[in-house]
Amino acid sequence: xxxxxxxxxxxxxxxxxxxxxxxxxxxxxxxxxxxxxxxxxxxxxxxxxxxxxxxxxxxxxxxxxxxxxxxxxxxxxxxxxxxxxxxxxxxxxxxxxxxxxxxxxxxxxxxxxxxxxxxxxxxxxxxxxxxxxxxxxxxxxxxxxxxxxxxxxxxxxxxxxxxxxxxxxxxxxxxxxxxxxxxxxxxxxxxxxxxxxxxxxxxxxxxxxxxxxxxxxxxxxxxxxxxxxxxxxxxxxxxxxxxxxxxxxxxxxxxxxxxxxxxxxxxxxxxxxxxxxxxxxxxxxxxxxxxxxxxxxxxxxxxxxxxxxxxxxxxxx
Length: 317
What we know:
Elements: H1 2-13, H2 31-38, H3 41-61, H4 63-67, H5 70-84, H6 89-96, H7 109-121, E1 123-134, E2 138-149, E3 156-163, E4 169-178, E5 181-183, E6 191-194, E7 200-206, E8 218-228, E9 233-238, E10 242-251, E11 257-258, E12 261-267, E13 276-277, E14 282-284, E15 287-288, E16 294-301, E17 307-312, E18 315-316
Parallel strand pairs: 1-10
Antiparallel strand pairs: 1-2, 2-8, 3-7, 4-5, 4-8, 6-7, 9-17, 10-16, 11-18, 12-13, 12-14, 12-17, 15-16
Helix pairs in contact: 1-3
């Protein structure tokens, strides 16, 4: 409706059927330009840009905010009322004549992430990084979850930090940045949840020391863990919109054998129960790194909220 109204008002303003000189001058228009002005080409482009394309692009970028406004709510009711009169029925009949089957165009994952974080949740996960260093006697994990705030909030609770089994050493902390300066946080204790599989999940409350979190604040949750022996499995849960999850496994010494890793994805219920695998496992081939060592990189782009991702590998040192 906005497009129709805008086009209706722009069309008379951009119509120049009697224009035969350059505006505000006595110079006559060239033949080609005059022909284009006669058929209304400049006005058509003006209406197309400002009357149709710009309103549609703005509506696409701010779909949720516009839908929640009163004006659009009234427009929805008006559209439903017009539809009940049958005015749109001829369009349905004409469209039904095309019986060719086609696959609907999926929406962009990046656009879905932006709309969910900016307009719905007000915050989101930029990236989850899991870096493993495998030694002959110990395995070390450095994990980080980076978040970005888009609407004012008083606190957050992160539950993305998981550990396979029980480590011998564990450090879990959080920090925040505002306008490239460190933001003070309250000292909080994390809660450990032992899953039926024996894995650990940590819930870390994050609160600013003064005031609230504001737009464009960056939050990072960091975890360091040490295991005795060689670990061959890792897992990450995604409970809110995220841009990516990255697994990286590297060795501190030259391995004797490295098998392909398997990346699996699951849909999970409350408390990481009712796990259902989605799709087939993805085979990740090892890559040769520096000094003959091998590295395994597994990347998941825009994982859906409510999913669990696991990576299994086998390295003989």
